[in-house]
Amino acid sequence: MTVAVPANSAPRRFGFDLTKPVLYLFAAVLCVLIVLPLSWLFVYSLTDKTGALTLANFYRLFTESSFYDPLATTFIISVSSAAICCVVAAPMAWLVARTDLPFAGTIRALVTASFVTPPFLGAIAWELLAAPNSGLLNKLFRDLTGADQDVHLFNIYTVSGIVFVISCYTFPYVFTLVANSLDRTPGELEDASSILGGGRWYTARRVTIPLVLPALLAGGLVAFLQAMTLFGSPAILALPAGFHTMTTKIWSLFQFPPKPELAAAASLPLLFLTVFLLRAEHMILGRRSYSVVGGKYGAPRLIPLHGLRWVAFALCLLMLMMPVFLPYYALLNAAFSPVATTFVTFSNATWQNVHFVLFELSAMTLALKNTIILGTAAATAGMAIALVIAYVTARQAVTGWRVLGFLATAPIAIPGIVLGVGLFLSYTRPPFVLYGTLWILLIAFVTIALPSAYQQLQAAFRTIHPELEDASRILGATRLRSLWQITAPLLRTGVVATWCFIFVGVMRELSAAIILFTSETKVISVLIYDLNESGDLGAISVIGLGMLIITFAVVIAVNRIPGFGTVRFRT
Amino acid sequence: MGKTTMHRRDVLKGGVALTVAGVFASPLRAAPPPAEAVTPALIEAAKKEGAVTFYTAMDLAFAERLGRVFEEKFAGIKVRVERSGAERVFQRIGQEYQSNIHAVDVVNTADQSHVIFWKRQGWLAAYLPEEVVKFYDKKYYDPDGLAIVTRVLVSPFGINTNLVKMEDAPKSFADLLDPKWKGKMVKAHPAYSGTIMNATFQIARDLGWEYFEKLVKQNVMQVQSATDTPKRIALGERAVMIDGAGYLVIRNKEAGQPVDVIYPSEGTPVATSPSVMMKAAPHPNAAKLFQSWMHGREGQQLLIDYARQYSPHAQAVEKPGVRKLSDIKLMREDPEGVEKAADEVKRRYSQYFKV
After folding, report:
1. B2-152+273-327 matches B154-269+340-353 in fold
2. How far is CA B58 from the centre of its chain?
3. Are the C-beta atoms of residues B226 and B245 closer than 8 Å to each other?
4. Nearest-neighbour CA in chain A from B89: distance (Å)
5. Is the Cβ of B50 closer than 8 Å to some Cβ of chain A?
6. CA distance, residue A550 to nearest chain B CA (Å)
7. 3-class DSSP assignment, residue A172
8. At the N or C end, where does chain A have fewer CB atoms within 10 A?
9. What distance in Å separates the CA atoms of residue A389 and residue A68, rounded to the nearest whole number?
10. Which residues does residue B185 pair with via DSSP β-bridges, in sequence order?
11. Can you spell out the DSSP letters for B164-203?
């Protein structure tokens, strides 16, 4: 910001423009962020303990049942979750976006609530609800039917239980993509169908559904990826049932004695599959943009549901019981219950758990401090990097802007736990010994947050016409100066929103943190995971509810900012 | 007081003498390090450091209680508890020390074999509090002052008495293989918990690995911590706890929950739980003060009264409700054996139980 600008408009070439060096610096930083961990992953996966080149790690991966069983399980879980998400989310999105469903806004808000609920917290809550013997729902079922103690309605410690819980917190991805697509689909196309004699349902079937099909497929892919790369839910539910998924297997390879070569080799299939599926998503979504090119669109017409309005609303609420109402109730119950799965009444309610978390749990202060420091730092750094890159790509400011854009979106293809492994391998050795500091977690969180932050801010830049900047530059300002004085103030709302969403994202990140934390750098998500292992469910519930309150405060604050939509989260 | 002393000594002689024999047995040596009293200078220096970091495998509620009581007594010194399973704590310290991170002051593990490893690495500081030398049998502390037994842990069965009546409950490891217990049992993990590492080693040695091969077929619910299994039976999630912290079952029973302990007829697995002070401790004086206090009368009495565990302190007064150690048929503890076999135990265990 120390650039001197001559008062009389001297030709620009005499002013020293910092833009290029700054941008090259960013490109270099991004390369280090992404390329370094991935390189070490490849190196480790292809070497043995002595450092000699080998394919033995991959050989073990595909020949030992302790490796290919989790691979198969993960595949089954991911495919089933993706299918369920599509089946549930698509009709709900259609109801919300295209019909006169009552309280559509409330339904959208509740979907957002399940969106921002940390999946590991949801998994623990569902443990409280649907553990076969102690689960609240099973207890209620036995109380109501008088069934025998051995009988249970649900068993969450099964593959189908895990599929269910993962779907609960993954369907919002599909919902959001489909609902956005429906919101954007021009009403004229449907009108044309009606004018030509197509009935309401015929139009829906022949026009609307084909138009959103790409979004649905893309949503399915995203759901598949989410289910595949999630660590918390399978770790909480699969291990008690006696099986591994890929992410829990990778994590277990880091247990003593650590086997980083195998962990690296096990990470690569996840990485390749993610890259491949994202390419597929890109191709599918890319096609859509051609299909709806047109002039100014009219608002889509809402289909009247008549008598079915309230039935549809009830169905939506019923669906949202699963990710929101029931789990939140279970957490609230456990927080004030003497034993986590005893129904709270006025006579047995206790403040013991709250007291324990607030006044006795010494790890809490540090974890909270670390989480806030990391959330703030990651949000600030991630937003700054995303802002610059979004600017460069939106304005095509330097040659090679495409590369920058690619680098900023690339981390979306790196599952959290894979990134964790890569960063661990990169930063436990000279010259960058960052393990044990907050820096390594900061790098992880910024890398994870970068793609969505970049996409949001790029969208924000598109709404600001470049002629405003041009005016500034014509008057002699450098690019950086006009960015700072003209563009930044105009972008303020988008920037604030991005910041907040990175912050919320950091709070719910577990899969990279679980590999990278040390006792001094523990964050709240890891603390909750620890407490789950020792069975301290009451304390988890109190901390979890606290997390949810903070998250909702942030989300509501962001929604007060005008002109801001939903944001993609990664876990 | 004299009577109590005799009493405690007798209890521990009968029970633990057998179990910890050999742990701290070492060749004759010149002279043990001098016992150190808690001096005002030490307290002053500890308060200047202002904090002590305590890695432990104790049940979280008890560890935090210890910390808070210590903080009340020595205002200005914060105790930060880092709780996990002993095997995880061991792994964490190894990983941190490998990366030159020396955050931990005092460690309490539930696996004696860890001390053997740490001693070999030269990571432990020598420190013998006066009270330990005065009131602890020599077998409860390292002659070089590198480790002190804080508590003795047993891993009995536990049952939820709403789900299974005491007379129908399994009384032996052999009973657990009865098909009627299929899907009704919960078990902790030796790669997480030190108590369970020792229990698994002892069961495999005495009953053979075939025992676990048969046990797997019973659809056992697998949790991580030895402090989690007692909580699962208290919730009523499973009727029988195969292994875990017996003291928590007793605590929960005394708190009115429908649980009880059973000491299996083949013998109950046992693990003495030592504490050490690290040479590279960032708060060496606070660490000494904490070690001294935890192994002193006050810390040990809390161990008995609040946590319902077995203390090696000769003057600590028993509180009725816990079966005397000398009255329990214990399996034999073998830290050297565990030290050599730990990786193999984890490998075979995960081969049988899949996780």
Report:
1. yes
2. 7
3. yes
4. 10
5. no
6. 25
7. helix
8. N
9. 40
10. B240
11. S-GGGS--STTGGGSGGGTT-EEE--TTT-HHHHHHHHHH
Domain locations along chain A: 18-46+67-292+351-560
Q: Where are the domains of chain B?
A: 2-152+273-327, 154-269+340-353
Q: How far apart are the first and last CA of chain B?
A: 50
Q: What is the structure's pLDDT at B272?
A: 97
CA atoms within 13 A on the CB side of B252: 27
CA distances from B194 to A8, B201, B212, B342, B343 (A): 76, 11, 18, 10, 13
Of the candidates B222, B234, B343, the beta carbon closest to that of A339 is on B234
Residue of B nearest to A157 (CA): B221
Which of these, B178, B195, B173, B174, lies nearest to B272 by C-alpha position? Answer: B195
Please tell us whether the domain made up of B154-269+340-353 is placed in CATH 3.40.190.10.
yes
Residue of A534, A541, A542, A543 for testing the chain B interface, max B β-carbons within 10 Å: A534
Residue of A nearest to B57 (CA): A534
Predicted confidence (pLDDT) at residue B44 exceeds the cutoff of 90: yes
Specify the pLDDT at position A212: 86
> Best interface-test mutation with A: which of B91, B219, B221, B290 has the largest number of A CBs within 10 A?
B221
Q: What angle do CA A399, A403, A408 make, to 5 degrees?
A: 130
What is the distance between the alpha carbons of residues B176 and B217, in angstroms, rounded to a whole number? 11
Q: Extract the residue ranges of chain A whose pLDDT is less than 50.
A: 1-14, 288-295, 564-571
**DSSP classification of residue A8:** S
Among B139, B188, B136, B198, smallest CA distance to B341 is for B198
Is pLDDT at B15 greater than 80 in this prediction?
no
Q: Which amino acid is at B139?
A: K
Q: How far apart are CA A70 and CA A263, in angstroms?
A: 13
* Nearest CB to B99; choose among A360, A428, A534: A428
Q: How far apart are the C-alpha atoms of B145 and B126, rounded to whole Å?
A: 5
The verdict on a CB contact (< 8 Å) between A256 and B87 is: yes
pTM for the complete prediction? 0.91
With CA atoms as reference, the chain B residue closest to A339 would be B235
Q: Which residues of A touch B238 (CB under 8 A)?
A: 133
Searching chain B, which residue's CA lies closest to the CA of residue A127? B237
Top-tier CATH class for A18-46+67-292+351-560: mainly alpha
Task: Evaluate whether B49 touches B286 at the Cβ level (below 8 Å).
Answer: yes
**B149: contact with A, CB 8 A cutoff:** no
Decide if A157 touches B, using CB distance below 8 A.
yes
Max distance between CA atoms of chain A, in angstroms, equals: 90
Tokens at residue A330, please?
A: 């279970």
Q: What percent of chain B shows pLDDT beyond 70?
A: 91
Helix and strand totals (H; E) in chain A: 26, 2
C-alpha A522/C-alpha A536 separation (Å) is 17
Spatial distance between the Cα atoms of A419 and A267, rounded to a whole number of angstroms: 9
Q: At what angle do helices A260-291 and A209-229 cross, to 10 degrees?
A: 170
What phi and psi, each to the nearest 5 degrees, are found at residue B165? -80, 150
**What per-residue confidence (pLDDT) applies to A268?**
92
Pick from A381, A496, A400: which is nearest to A447 by CA? Answer: A381
What is the rounded distance in angstroms from the CA atom of residue A566 to the CA atom of residue A459?
12
Q: Please report which helix (H) or strand (E) contains residue A480, including its range.
A: helix A479-482
pLDDT score for A28? 86
Q: Does domain B2-152+273-327 correspond to CATH entry 3.40.190.10?
A: yes
* A149 neighbourhood in chain B, CB within 8 Å: 163
Q: Torsion angle, CA of B132/B136/B137/B139, rounded to 10 degrees? A: -60
